[in-house]
What we know:
This protein is mainly alpha-helical. The protein has a single domain, classed as Serine Threonine Protein Phosphatase 5, Tetratricopeptide repeat (Alpha Horseshoe).
Amino acid sequence: MAKHITVSLIILLGTLALIACSSAEDSRLVTSAANGDIALVESSLENVSNINVTANDGWTALSVSSREGNIDVVKYLLDHGADINAQESGGNSPLFWAAFGGHVEIVRLLIGRGADTTRKCPKCQTPIEIARSRGHKEVVKLLSALK
């Protein structure tokens, strides 16, 4: 039996990206999280078996919503059991992506919910190091206060 793959087209930080998922429901969840559409995220969760489902490129709904700065989606996913430290296929956590984007409130939320602040990405950068390299002073200050 042939396996069907659903491909969704989204724009992440101005970059065209394809998200391929094993089912239409998985694709809808990840795409809705990227777009910040909380209503679609809520309805999508009714049709997926695992909130931590990844797109074929390795992105979880929590990682992509953290990267895009969609705080309402991040809160919702965490409240419904998303793995706060799940790494996408590139090895980066939701906290890394929030720090990368300079999303102070998401960084604060993730830290408050127990995100690992010391996990390094494959390029050996912690969230504070990526925030510093991108000039996100408020995120650096927030993460520095934890030491």
